[in-house]
Amino acid sequence: MEQPTNLWRDAWKRLRRNKLALAGLAVVAFLVFVAAFGPWLAPHDYLSQNLDLRSVPPQAAHWFGTDDLGRDVLSRLIYGARTAFLVAVAVTLIAVGIGVILGAIAGFYGGTFDRFVMWFTDMTMSVPQLLLVVVINASLKQPISTWMETQYLASLNPIWRNTMLADFVLVFGSMALISWPPYARLVRAQVLSIRSRPYVTAARALGLTNRIILARYVLPNAMGPLVVAVSAGLGTAMVLESAFSFLGVGVTPPTPSWGNMISDGLRVWTNSPHLLVAPAAVLAVVTVAFNFLGDGLNDALNPKGQK
Amino acid sequence: MTQTLLSIKGLSKRFDLRAGAFGQTAITVHALDDFTADIRAGETLSLVGESGCGKSTTGFCLLNLHRPSGGSVIYDGQDIAGLDEDAMRPFRRDLQIVFQDPYSTLNPRMTIGEALSEPILFHKLATKAELPARLAQLLADVGLTPAFARRYPHELSGGQRQRVAIARALACQPRFIVCDEAISALDVSVQAQILNLLLDLQDKYGLTYLFIAHDLAVVRHISDRVGVMYLGRLAELAPARDLFARPLHPYTRALLSAVPEPDPRAARSRQRLEGEVPSPLNPPQGCRFHTRCPLARDPCKTKVPAWREVAPDHRVACHAVTGKDQTNWETP
């Protein structure tokens, strides 16, 4: 039987032999599942407080116990996964989008635009991440919620009352603004090396337009390393979101995020260690899983690097 | 007299490189200098020479894949040298190229069918409905079955890939194909097959080839005319039979005497060249060959030899060659 094989099929074959990467993939798949079906999986409402059951340790009704307001920790972890995943995917998509467009055009056409993009990339990379996010949050959060309030008063549309929306947009925006440079550099380097391959020259000799050559000849062949970078980038974005939420410049409570759960748990860890251990363990496992998966994908997509 | 397909005059290519931390040092590579020749409809014109002598650059400049630094290429009454991509596009169909490396000449993410459909659909050479038949025809032309259309390049052998690369060039229904070392990377047995395929296709479709090679035995076998290049300049251009029987330029003589002789008892007069090919970064003044030429005299060091027709259809750039005998020195 003549099966058309290609890079992705071969890569999958190699990935299947890598146990750590498979474990990482399983955890990531589970995370996606939990994030997608969170509302149906969570045993309790993540916001409902049961003041009779405050800070109880893990038990049958509450697998991971409850926090100091009597909220179910498992449910909050599940909703925290939704937050983390939403932020990671949105930030990575925006960052990859900016990176691919800038990197591809800069690498393919070169010249002044290339120099400008690289200069802009270096400049962005030199901005301290934490500082930028703090500045954006400190300067924009108040004006945006004021603006949303006036919009609500003008239209009475309840969507303007949804402060989570503003919160997420700020988090996505500020994180994406600092996350795109590595993607731009990676794509540019790939495009630079691919644009001089004979099949690209052949495409030019056929008279194809630059846009077709870039879209059908250059970019598809630049995707391998990008997939690896995206996998690692998703993990990084989750950690970053948790870090910002931990420091109070990310997702605002009561929206659950692993970061603000760790932050809350830290204050009471001597009395209720489960409030710190549960979110920290989840974050650690997910981060390690993304790294294993990224390494596995790297090996699977670049077989020459293997022994 | 056959018709001229491409008339090339003074075609030159310099690559300007910038070195140093601020790009302050400009280095110029003289890859191709003052290439003048006509390519006749239906012929196979071969270019030979050592690596780095500008053979491939000539092919690339003809097709505007490298933008020439100077000179003209007249095709269909129009100078196509240095046209921008949009202006060049109508000519691309007619002028095609087959590359040396069969492993990187095809896009690894496209099936053979997709790779061949691209030029057909882009240039609207067939409708979507006619496409399968056209693909089958192209594959049959290069000796492959229609089943290959669904395969990816990495499933093919080097020879098969080169057949696909030829089919891709044919898909445009061209008049002229540059074969840039098209068989050099293949096994000897496969080389012969591909060579015969190219000759068959030339008969079938009336193609004109610019055949860039370094295997003199192959060149002798397939060429109508042969051009010998040295360090970016044409040294000699003559009908194949003429060139191999009576080489006039001292470099051509040295090159031909280096061809291995299969008969060990045959008398050989091996002419050795001293030294190395000078760097194209800083080519010698005057005749570029004078640093290694056994016939070099003073004028060779200062004066670039003219490109002259010294016998019917036999052109040489050498001060020492006047007629059929190279030892006659003209006074410069």
UniProtKB/TrEMBL annotation, chain A:
Keywords: Cell membrane, Membrane, Peptide transport, Protein transport, Transmembrane, Transmembrane helix, Transport
Membrane topology, record value: Multi-pass membrane protein
InterPro entries: BP-dependent_transpt_permease, MetI-like, MetI-like_sf, OppC_N
GO biological process: peptide transport; protein transport; transmembrane transport
Residue spans crossing the bilayer: 20-42, 84-109, 116-139, 159-178, 225-252, 273-293
GO CC field: plasma membrane
Locations listed in the record: Cell membrane
Domain of life: Bacteria
Every ABC transmembrane type-1 domain range: 81-294
Family of the protein in this entry: Belongs to the binding-protein-dependent transport system permease family.
PANTHER family xrefs: D,D-DIPEPTIDE TRANSPORT SYSTEM PERMEASE PROTEIN DDPC-RELATED (PTHR43386:SF1), OLIGOPEPTIDE TRANSPORT SYSTEM PERMEASE PROTEIN APPC (PTHR43386)
Entry protein name: ABC transporter permease subunit
Source species of the chain: Stagnihabitans tardus
Automatic annotation (TrEMBL), chain B:
Keyword Nucleotide-binding in record: yes
Keywords: ATP-binding, Nucleotide-binding, Transport
Record's keyword annotation contains Lipid metabolism: no
Subcellular location: Cell inner membrane
Basic and acidic residues bias (residue ranges): 262-275
Molecular function GO labels: ATP binding; ATP hydrolysis activity
Region described as Disordered: spans on this chain: 260-281
Record-linked Pfam families: ABC_tran, oligo_HPY
CDD domains: ABC_NikE_OppD_transporters
One annotated GO biological process: peptide transport
Domain ABC transporter: 6-256
InterPro entries for the chain: AAA+_ATPase, ABC_transp_ATP-bind, ABC_transporter-like_ATP-bd, ABC_transporter-like_CS, Oligopep_ABC_C, P-loop_NTPase
Record's bilayer topology term: Peripheral membrane protein
Alphabetical list of SUPFAM superfamilies matching this protein: P-loop containing nucleoside triphosphate hydrolases
Record-level GO cellular component terms: plasma membrane
PROSITE patterns: ABC_TRANSPORTER_1, ABC_TRANSPORTER_2
PANTHER family xref list: D,D-DIPEPTIDE TRANSPORT ATP-BINDING PROTEIN DDPF-RELATED, TRANSPORT ATP-BINDING PROTEIN
Similarity-based family: Belongs to the ABC transporter superfamily.
Name this polypeptide is given: ATP-binding cassette domain-containing protein
